[in-house]
Structures are given as structure tokens and as C-alpha cells.
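User: My notes are a mess, but here's the protein and 2-acetamido-2-deoxy-beta-D-glucopyranose's SMILES. Can you give me a structure?
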Amino acid sequence: MHLVNILFFLIFLSFSQNAYSRYNTSVIPITKDESTSLHKVAYSFRLRSWDGEPYLFLDLEAPFTWKDCILKHIDIACGLEEGCRFPVRCDKPLCKEAKSYFNPTCPSLNITAKYGCDICAVTPFNPVTNTCKISQMTTDLVNLYLTDGRNPGPGPNPPFGNEFVLSCAPKSLVAHFPGNMTGVAAFSWSGLAFPRQLSFLDIAPKFALCLPSVTSGLGVAFLGDGPFYFTTSRSLDLRSVLSYTPMVRKSSKSLGYYIKINRISVKGASVNIPKSSSVKLSSRVPYTVLRSDIYNALLAGFSKATVNIPKVTAVKPFGLCLKDSAIGTGGVPKIDLETESGKVWSISGENSMKRVGNGAACLAFVDGGSRVADAIVMGTFQMEDNFLLFDLGNQKLGFSSSLLSRGTSCSKFNFTEVAK
Ligand SMILES: *[C@@H]1O[C@H](CO)[C@@H](O)[C@H](O)[C@H]1NC(C)=O
Ligand SMILES: *[C@@H]1O[C@H](CO)[C@@H](O)[C@H](O)[C@H]1NC(C)=O
Ligand SMILES: *[C@@H]1O[C@H](CO)[C@@H](O)[C@H](O)[C@H]1NC(C)=O
Ligand SMILES: *[C@@H]1O[C@H](CO)[C@@H](O)[C@H](O)[C@H]1NC(C)=O
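Assistant: No problem, the inputs look usable. Here's the predicted complex:
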């Protein structure tokens, strides 16, 4: 066959074999880590394909993705299976952006000056151990799933996938990382965040996060517009259950996601908090951390609303624990966050009470002290089994409140791979 014909044949083949290539949404399985109660994704951003495949910590605040890898300086192209990676030069826009997030608590990059512009020196940060090391940006390949909203299917450019920019990191940075995690997947507002680098998919700048509350099932992240279906209902597109509120980017260098709330109430009674407080959504803490004045007000309000349930000795780090067996089928009163848009994010018992053993269920909020940078930092326990849509283009957050009351949960996506 003539070379051009072969080429056309191959192109035809790659298009015709892959019905999923017309979809714009990618899907990534999420695992809850037993040792930290925080969440992680497999190294491949797909179903974990071998026992022992490492994980990346899912971080809503990291400026860029990183993983333990060694950058070899090879001038000739080498096989992808050899882990060939290409250093990013310092004058690339993504390098400049990565450097603009330099963390002043990390080592100075001065010692890298001798390499000139051939490398892009950065300091990846480990948010669990609070340490950072000098390393450099590189490109790697990721072979993502695409989805019709119901199952994962093959992504673009199989079997190699597409390039994206991340940082390598020395092994010493992951030394005390629990749960087989050897890096960080950035889902922040940075231009280097993983979802924002996937322009090759032609996907919309938005992602959905549905964190699992159990370690036995997989939660799910979607990159792109959707639709999103769970196995519990063939006809319920989860986009239809969302309420929206504006999402604030504090400054052009701010990485985290914030919403504003007007009011917190328990059983209809307002909790005395400053008017218009910011709430940061964080995947780095398991339980919501409140500034002391807000913490004390919430504790007082919740205590009053649960006056009929016997209290038991509080178990650290919590300040209010109830006798679990006395809670009853109706559960505890909801904690309602009235958002800036007037819509209510309801925190029901599954997201407010943590069973700590010995028959105690504790209000799963912690006192951060009076001098915290952010007055309210919502943690993962409060976000689990809630469907959250981060719409970066329109700067708004879609939220569902607990999916459990709708008879579904974040572990109900059908991860059976569909070949065509
Ligand atoms: C994919 O995205 C493009 C542009 O955002 C849109 O026009 C198109 O309809 C999308 N395709 C599908 C299958 O959703
Ligand atoms: C970095 O190196 C330059 C020149 O070697 C020096 O002038 C500068 O003070 C150094 N900066 C830091 C933060 O060490
Ligand atoms: C790490 O992976 C190994 C091999 O799959 C497994 O036996 C071990 O339990 C894992 N550790 C954690 C904390 O997940
Ligand atoms: C999951 O998807 C596969 C492939 O489409 C299908 O055969 C199976 O019935 C689905 N499972 C559930 C629980 O919906």
C-alpha cells in the first residue's frame, strides 16, 4: 500500500474504532485513603491497573501536579515505555506561571541558576508532611478516559495519550507520604492545574468532584461539561440537582476555591457569625476548621438544637459528642449554610457527625484558634457524598447537598470500561 494510503487508513482506523472520541468529558476514579481519610487518584488517572500502582494526593490548592520521577537529559527521542520525559524550558509560559506561585517557606532556587534557561526549577510541596524540595518541570503523558456520562471509554490518542506539564520530585519528598501516595494531583485555580491543561480534549473549563465516604468504593471526578449519571437512576443527570453560588478567586495568585455565605443556621435558628463570611473548600483537611468565634457559636447553636440527645465526653479533636444510640432515625438537625446566591447548602448528619467509637458521635468540626488565615475551611468529611461542580469559566460552584437523601452516593458511578 502506498504510504499516504496507509496513513489515511490509520487515521480512519483511529477515528472509527473509538466512538468515545466524540465525547468531551473525562472521568477519573477517586479513592478514599484509609490512613488519612483524605482522597487520592491512581498514578494513571484511570482505574488502578496493578496492585501497588502508586497514588497522587488530590489537592484543590496545589499550584501544579508533581510525582516522584527522575529527569534524564537525553537529546534523542527515546521510547515512551522507558519513561522518557522532556524538561520544560524556563521561558515557557507554564514555567513562568509555576514560578509565580513560589512558596517562600521552600528552599531558594538560587542553586539552579547554573543551568540557565534549559530547565524550569520549581519547589514541589507536600501538603501532608508540609515539606518541599527543589526539582524541575517536565512533560509527561496521560492516557485519560472519555465518558458518555455513564461509563469510562477509551480516550484520545490511544495507547499513549496526551502531554501535560508537571514537576518531578525527589523520592525524599514522598518519604512520609501515607497511603502509597507518591505525588500530588493539582485541581486548583492555577493554569497548571490538571483539569486546566486538557485543552486537547476540547473540554469546558469545569470539573466535578464527588468524594466517596467509604474506602470500599470509588468516588469520581469529571472533567468537562457532562452529562453525569450514576447507576442508581438511568435518567437522573446530576447537573439537574445542583444549586449555584458565585465562586471567588481571592487574587490572581490565589489557588484555592472560596464561596461566600450570608448565614449559618441550625434548626432555623441563626448562628451568630460575621456577616458575609468566606468559606474555603479544602481537600487537605478531613474536618472543617473554624475560627474560634465561629466555632464557639456553632457549638452553642448545635448544642441547643440537640438538647434532647444525651451528651457524652468529647473525644479530641472534637468539642461536642452525643450518645449515638440516642440520636434516633430522624438524625440530628441539619446545619444550613445560606450561600451568597441565597441557595442553601444543607449539611445533614452524615456530613456533620463522625462516629468515633464507644457509642459516641461527634460534631465533626474543629477549632482552628483565633488567628487562622481563613475563618472557615471546609474539609473533606463535609464534602463527601456531595456532588460539587467547579465552573472555573463562569466562576461559580454547583452543589447538591448530600446525595444520600436522593438515594445515591458518590460511589455509584459505573466504572465498567466500555471498549468502543
Ligand atoms: C464538545 O465541546 C464543543 C465545544 O465546547 C461543543 O461544541 C460540542 O458540542 C461538544 N461535543 C459534545 C459531544 O458534547
Ligand atoms: C541569588 O544569587 C544571586 C547571584 O548569585 C545573589 O545576588 C542573590 O542575592 C541570591 N539570592 C538569594 C535569595 O540567595
Ligand atoms: C500500599 O500498596 C501495597 C501493595 O498494593 C498494599 O499492600 C498496602 O496495603 C498499601 N498501603 C496503603 C497504606 O494503602
Ligand atoms: C455498568 O455498565 C456495564 C456496561 O455498560 C453494564 O453492562 C452494567 O449492567 C452496568 N452496571 C450497572 C450496575 O448499571
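Residues 56 and 97 are 22 Å apart (CA to CA).
User: Great, I'll file this with my notes.
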